[in-house]
User: Fold Sodium transporter from Bacteroides clarus.
Amino acid sequence: MEAFSIGTIDIVIVAVYLLFIIWWGIKNGKSTDAQSYFLAGRSMPWWVVGLSLFAASISSTTLIGQSGDAYHTGLAVFNYNLTGIIVMVFFAVFLLPLYIRSKVFTIPEFLERRFDKRSRYYFSAICIVGNIFLDAAGALYAAALIIKLVLPEVDLHLIIVVFAIIAASYTIPGGLSSAINAELIQAVVLILGSVLLTYFCFSQGGDYFFNLWANDDILVKLIRPLSDNATPWLGLIVGMPVLGIYFWANNQTLVQRVLSAKTIDEGRKGVIFTGFLTMSTLFIIAVPGLIARNLFPGLEKPDMVYPNMVMQLMPVGLLGVMLAALLSALTSTISAILNSTSTLFTMDFYAQITKEADAKKLVLVGKIASCIIIILAALWAPQIGKFGSLLKYYQEMLSYIAPPIVAAFLLGIFNKRVNGSGAFIGLISGFLIALLLLFYKNAIFGDLHFLLMVPFLLIFSMMVIYVASLFFEVPKMQALIDTTFSFIDLKEEYVILRRTAWYKNYQIWAAILLVLSAFIWIIF
Assistant:
């Protein structure tokens, strides 16, 4: 692996930044009670929710994985983000009000409100395992790849341990408040740093991008043929939205930030704000990754393209800022996963088993759980290198586990006949199918793209949930309050928003977001 030199001033900038983030996170932490520690007191305004959500979502799979995928296959990888923006609007309109009104701490807790404890325990366990072995381990591995470029002689395991300690040092003492307040700084640094990198990338290789554009090259196309190995066009319609709903609307790590909003309206505006920020990743992550094909041809691992751009394109001083931005994305992701996973364990398992536990005991258990979680993630992280592309590793695993869970949520919210027994049978059936695919995918689906497998798994799970529900009694009315969609609520809300100033109306901003998304699909 090629090593790059880094000046003293850049090292000082990175060190000062990391120390500041730790201090800032600890200073703004709240751990007096469970609501403060796990949900920041449900007091966050929309812009805090939006910035925090964006920082937590720009994980290793986005920054390292998407730029690497753009390097390898072109701009089509941005479809994940663009489809995600459509999903954010869907989430803000239909699901978010139910989550906040039901006053849940965790998304699996919402499943219990709608169905029963079995669904809650199953989903929570799946989330905990996924958070540790997919998300947290992936973020630690990505951080280690970057430092390995600068200091190739340092052991990979040691780097992983150091990053685990940095993220844990402020997240464990201060809870979600620490994580969110650190993420505000990290989001700003990440955006500014990425804009700088994009500028230097265009100044040295912009001609390559404009030549591809002028020649209508497949690399600059978002809509690809059905035979495309990266993102077949049908996958955009039948596969990506399902993964998007799981990522943005069922994912405790991200939704926990929305649950911290002080009102439904603030939460919605925060999600829409995140949509606008996510749109910028086309220009600050995907396009630079594509330009790097010409700047750094023949990289053995596409995942190394973003670290290469940072190390080779940024001048002294700004290199330190960019490394700080890069580490921002990674530490904020680890921090977010750490807090959300400890919340899942504490509220979905410990608090249910130990009913007499007071608020202080719950916070203590949350802190202990965080320590165990970060240790497990650090132990697994070195194994990820065996899976090739970080993005492929993440998306393919997600395509197996997400459809049954999305099916349970969608049917539960939009169909009042579905009940707890049907949902649990569907979730378990989906899990067994996922295990089968893990070992026998080629025998069942052949070479079918994983995005095209998703609708089969979703429809199968929906059919099982609905048909199984018919063999059990109709859900009690109590289970349907604040857990199912109501057209009456939507109409009442529309009437209220018509009297609101346009710039305060989240629906106007959601419509603008959808129009811009369509515009990008048309252009590319």
